[in-house]
Amino acid sequence: MKTKLFFAVSVVLLAVSMARAQQMPLFRWENFTTANGLPDNHVYCVLVDGNRIWTGTDNGLGLFENGKWKVFRPADGLAHQAVLSLALDKATGDLWAGTMGGLSRISAGRIDTFTQLNSGLSNDIVYGVGVQGDYVWTATAAGASRYNTRTNQWALFNERNTPMFEIWVYAVSPAADKVYYAVWGGGVLEYDQNTERWKDYNDPDGETEMVVMKDQGLIHEITTSVSYVDKILWVATYFGASRYDGRYWHNFLQKDSGLPSNFLSQIKGVDANRAWFSTDKGLAYYDGTNWAVYRPALDTHKPEMYVRNASGDVKNIPVQTAPSHNYILAVDFQGDDIWVATAHGLSHGIRQKESVSIAKVFSTEQTRPKK
Amino acid sequence: MNAAPKHATFRTMFSIAGVFAVVVLALAAQPAPKQSASSVKERYLSPIEMAFSHDGRLLFVVCQDSDEVRVLDVQSGKIIRNVAVGHLPRAIAVAPDGKRLYITNAWSDSVSVIDTTSFEVIQTLPTGSEPTGVVADRDGAFLYVANRLSSDVSVIDLKTGQESKRLAAGQGASYLALSPDGRSIYCTHVYPNRGPVRTTPESEITVIDTASQRVVERKALHNVAGTFHVALSQDGKLGVVAQLRPKNLIPLAHVEHGWVFGDSLTLFGSDVGGTVQIPIDELDRYYALPWGIAIAPDKSKIFVTTAGSQSVTVLDVARLLKTVHARQKAFTNDLSASAEYVVSRISVGQNPRGILLSLDGNRLYVANRLDDTISVIDPKTDQLVSTIDLGGPKNIDPLRRGERLFYTAGFAFQGQFGCSNCHIDSTIDGLEWDLEPDGFGKDIVDNRLLENLAGTEPFKWNGGNPDMPTECGPRTEKFFFRSRSFNQQQLTDLVTYVYSLPYRPNRYRLANEELSPAQERGKAIFERTKTKAGAPIANENQCGYCHSGPKYTNQQQVNVGTGKPTDRSPVVDVPQLSNVAYSAPYLHDGSARSMEEIWTVFNPTDTHGVTNDLTKDELNDLIEYLKTL
User: Fold this and answer.
1) Nearest 10 degrees: Cα torsion B552, B553, B558, B560
2) Do B615 and A94 touch (CB under 8 A)?
3) Which residue among B214, B597, B620 sits closest to A117, beta carbon to beta carbon?
4) What is the pTM of this model?
5) What is the fold, at CATH topology level, of the domain defined by B517-626?
């Protein structure tokens, strides 16, 4: 009896899960540029804190709240006008901004800045920042740093005390058990919070752009982003993306997945199966089976969305709006909505009630050639 | 032409006489440090804060120096219990249900939880560094503690007894107040926020939202360095902060113009809109170190303890608000304004601190820290009604006399300030001053710690004062107070007190007294005799050469290349390094805003130790070691 019940429940859960997985999100895109208050059109990063949208641009940190933009620049105490990365301390509400000239903490309007000259920060070019508990982890052009906000003590991690054979560190994703770093040209570094030991993950092919052993390790050494969610590591590189479950690697390339490009700036996992990919040729969503891509068309620049099923069939979905540019640098989520940083503007993807049903789309009509 | 030699002779004679006088005075005051160590030290109570029981029958008095809470029966005026708590208790909060007392222990980094039925300490909660102000939220679920040394606010979950989060406050976070509606907590700070060197000091009122437990606002306090208590009216429409407005960017030669400290309040809330700073001084009389605040339940009056003037200043709120609304421009420096709203100055005991109204508002209680007494005042008539003796030692020893001298502003011209204006609670003020009458803008100096000074002579940034009597004696009279001087006995007492100040607990040392790996590596750098390339480092350029001995100073004067164009000489006295972690900013003039800047900015040619061959992580290691000293 118990076995039957378990089977029934499992079938129901699987059905629900599959049904959800078959629904690709549909958005109406609202775009922001300097014309409507964005500090600069080149947007490196975006972060959602409730109804507050923070965005790091080439010329200032923008805060969008109650329909208005507020801009922070060095004159306001910000470390540098080019804001490359953002992280929120969810416990305190403090925002940490990695810039081209140091690390800034924005706390209820006050900005405290940490640089390599006035603090223990390893380097002023802060590509990535993440908060976990009392620690602020940074990825810099000269190694990684960890700042203890309670004791004001710094720990630096570099080639002298980790397997980091390149010190150009691009991104960090800290969690309670592990901290992952994307090391540009050096693969991925993992820090175990319990053992305090480091481990590196590298491309088994070496630095070659040829993929000889797909799914046998990290796709490439030139990593740009890591996202550790539900004990799954998602990795973005300039030559494809990877998913690692602690035992097996699965790699994604343009030629055999729904990725619109192998050149990725960011990857952001939603959970163990779903992730968003920021590429130079559009924004891609992967639900564990199917793909959706959102962008202005590469040729006509008209709004475009297409979906790809597990068989590799591709279908265009008619849309009226798209993100403001193909070149996507980062995303963050606001409930079901998504905010997208691009090379020309910030985009707000407003989730529509209706979704795109993969089963329905591919049931009868002709599909586009496989991508 | 012929007159010149006569003047020169007169000047020479005058100088000799001056030196002779200094030597005689110094000799007279010499035995101070040893004398204090050998005599029996009285254990004074030093009441600093108070709170009422829910029924108003008991007054709980936090006694800073006896490490206890004394429980006073209000009606009889008798002490009925003494409850031992942690080291250097600083503040008290009563749980909303009245069943618990929370006492911050500044030197134990903890809160003692006292059961108000058994009067036993039933729990000890960990906090940040040097916990001071404390409030419980309205539900009694969370405790907020302002940590002075770590400059943050601990949020403690009272169910688990664990600190759930730490909120970044301003520099020297110290006092807290809960808004009457329970939605906000206001935090004030004894030190200014760390801004660029030689700029106007800036402080803040940190506003915490109790629902989200986040800092949601920082009310800027311009030209304010030390802020003390904050209080809110019962209707929540008027907030009041006691504060100092230092005028440290101009030479201290302006004492006679009343241009050193402005004793003032910041008002905030819907009664005033925004923040408004108001003076409480008079044109020719100062009321130094405004510290504690009480607001009458009907909002008719504000009572402020002025800790350096042994008095309580009383402001009429209606008249005050009328002035605030009538004046269109800032008037903090218009000392004539106080006549419009200050209605009374009530003399109380020595170094009055905590101030509290009885629950019915009919009595005002003032904790006289250096008298071990409580003054009881009728708030309607502003008259002193009685003085309650808390039962401290009756003998006033040299240490206590010296401490009173340290904390009084009575020696300065027009009562403007005392030692403790700059050495807040016997520490530092985080400011740089232009002290000497050596030309405006010359010899800017940072404020040094006063902990365990014996064996660190000479004093003054350039080592110009050979001993403490010289440092505190004629120099203080002439250049600081510009009024009456300490007599020999007073000078001896003052020096005895200053020399008695111990080290604060160092939080960077591990509990087992061993060094962490980073600190070990830093120690090796501190003690190294060769560069990383193997070249020998000259003796005088090794860290441990100048920073030697138990206090990490060889008591010599050297030029390490940190002189500024405004300094008359680049030669500086080698400072002690003990507890150097707690004395930012650094260098003689405070130009290094962090320890890192001593070397990353101000040591370009390795004249202040060889550091330019160090990697960033090695420099961090060196700093981690220095913090343990």
Assistant:
1) 20
2) no
3) B597
4) 0.92
5) Cytochrome Bc1 Complex; Chain D, domain 2 (1.10.760)
